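G., before I forget:
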Amino acid sequence: ENIFDRSRMAPKTPIKNEPVDLSKQKGCTPERNPITPVKLIDRPQPDPWTPTANLKMLISAASPDMRDREKKKELFRPIENSEQSDTPDSLQYDMVDDCTVDEFEKQRPSRKQKSLGLLCQKFLARYPSYPLSTEKTTISLDEVASILGVERRRIYDIVNVLESLHLVSRVAKNQYCWHGRHNLNQTLKTLQEAGELQYGELMTFFQHKEQDLEYKFGERKKETIPDSQDRPLLDFSEPDCTSASANSRKDKSLRIMSQKFVMLFLVSKTKIVTLDIAAKILIEETQDTVDHSKFKTKVRRLYDIANVLTSLGLIKKVHVTEERGRKPAFKWIGPVEFPGNTDEPRGRSPTSDALPGTQRGACAPYQICSTGKQRFTRHASFNGAQPYEGTRRKVSSEPNSPRQERQDEYCSKMINLAAVCRQKIEENNTRNPSITSPLSLLPVLGDSDFCVNSLPQAVFPVVQADVPSLSLPNGVSSQALYPSVPAVSKTENGKPTLLPSQPFLCFPSSSLFMLCGSLQENNLRETLPTMGGVGNRSAEAQATVPPAACQKRSSHKCVLPSAPVDDEEPAAKKQTMEQSDVPLSLVVPKKPFESPKAESTPGSGCTSAEHLEDFHLDLASPAAPEAADKESSKPLDSQEQEKRSQNKDPDEPSAGKEHISKENANQPFLPQYLYVQPAAGLSSFNFLFSANQAPGAISLAASQLPAVSVPCVVVPSTALASFPLICSPTITSPLSPVPDGSFSAAACVNFSMSGLASTTPVFIGTTAVVTPKVSPAPSVDPQQPAHPTLHLSPVLARSCGAVKLDSPMCMGHPVTLLKLQQPSSTPLTPKSIRPARHEAFFKTPGSLGDPVAWKKNEGNQTRNGSSVQRRLEISSTSPD
DNA sequence: CGATCCCGCCACATT
DNA sequence: AATGTGGCGGGATCG
């Protein structure tokens, strides 16, 4: 019957269900999917239904909406009659498909074709792995079920697992929001951390002796048991446990089981987990009594979960042959390390402590977004932005959901780091007294939300968005450089205007952290306000702008204000933050505006784009003056430019800068940054440092995170892709505008991240220079070879003497720019970057080097820096 | 025959 | 009460 139906269905509605394409599924590696987002899938195969399937695919690809309409559930079901299809549409499609078609039905769909794994692949094929931040994809369960030709129940199985990994989040009844993999690494990292707590010992235990499980079981259980308590940890993602209300039965299972299962892999040294062990462990937690039936049921569920995870490319089926025989098992083939480490030296930073709850208000500018919705919601809720929030049963409005907490933790860690860095910096820099303040900022950040992610969108205007940009550093730098460096610097010093630049950061990728310290003292305050202004703008921007968003993929960005938030921040800022919308904030100097509010509507989650734009705008404007010079030289990205123009404008000039940067990209200059690339794509962090500030070098502890001195920003990005940006502010004292050589030396950074490995690149820029200390990579993780590689490439960029100082830099992937300074430097342009350079960068981590150019202060300087940087460069190539 | 796991009943949750 | 969710396990397939 099924077959028929399909065929019949097909005619009517192409869409329909379909069993469809399995063919492809197999072929495809799950992993691939991520890569190619949308795609249809498909390879034609001869399947009976294929035709239909293909149609569907096509259709879906073409326009989901259409499909939906057409299909309608009801239609589907009933429809069976018509047999073939003859609808014109179908015909068309058919033609395409034909090849395969053949017979039609023929085979029945074997059980395999109906498997959950396949279904999941089909499901995943419908959505991009890394959706643009701007787009927010909502998933209607009914729709999907009908499209895929399955009962809704099956979709729940898939969605529940995806939700446990935060690839989707429930928005409302029957509706889920697709987030894609942007936050996947972050989620995995969180799970890993939680897993170590819960299962660390246990796994070790098992691993050592698998056989003995049982007995271990008994023993270990104890440990585990406690875990159960923690559930929250696990749940973090979800549930809310919090409070909630509830936990209803449900919460219990599939989602949690999925998270726990993933944790087992992450905690496992071998990365291989056998079903029986997993079942035992999981059962245990739940209950002690293990009866056989229960075990059997658990295993069944694990298969369900495993099928979804397999489709995601996170695990693969393997067999473990033990003495007893071969046992079914699964091997983790997803990312293993995540940048953010747990280990950071957490130190003292008070800030971190603060994070947790406190501040949120203060911090305003920075936010985090995480999965979009959730976080968003929260914030939004204030605004009213998100309607749904409540929908989920559990959703809690509470302040923190477990998930958030987790994130917060993460944030706090980051913050701590930042704080440390700052301190160091400060220490180093004596010159400026003010310095300290920066620290304070950090905390702020923390509390705010940390952003992690979520929304991918580019919310943050701050930086720009494109990824490319990131890579672009060169471009950026270049931009800066060109233009009037000197002038800028001056301004900077003197002015506060510049200030802005210092402080914040932006990141695009999903989660990012930024640390910044701004050095400047004075400025900070000023900056703050600016930031606020920025924020507002962003908000505004959001409303207006959409376009930008597309470009960037990164979703989250955060900006921190380096400045101390504290002081007064403009109310506006806070507001903005609260608004939530976005997390981002940027700093922009510029005028403050009114804050828009976040408009976030629930629906549109994606405001980010807008923000970005705003961002740009802002940047532009500030930059303008300086920019003008710069601009003259280059054109901006069109988009950005446009935006800018639109928005604000005045600054057109600024735009110029950006352009320059892009153009420059090619050029070799770029001085001040280091770029570190992360190894593969996994998670990684990116850092950018600006050199300016710290004259001193920074050293980080090697192993751990280190400290970075300087203003740094660290961003972990989950997805590599993204790119982080960073800005540095410059710092220096107000004066020294040109640090010249002296400065250059200043910063040194070592990174080592332990875990990192990641992928992400880091940039460090300083005006000053960085000291080359870097070699961190190796140190980092010895364990894994892979990771270890961090590459730092310093980019030298051009020397630009001018550059130097402060400057904020920014990059983001897509968009990025920060503007920090207005006066001084300009940051870069984001977009511009991307193109050419971008490629280069991205391609190989090591290779990158991009030069980033920027200018920084006016100054000059830099040259030295460049030389230094070169040295620094570690692995990657540097462009020069 | 054991490994997989589809299918869908039905309880509980939410509307 | 209707509808959404999703636990659960019988039993069909696969290998």
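Residues 111, 114-116, 151, 153-154, 173, 246, 248-250, 275, 299-300, 303-304, 307, 328, 391, 393 of chain A lie near DNA strand B (CB under 10 Å from a C1'). Residues 402-428 of chain A form the longest helix (27 residues).

More on Monday.
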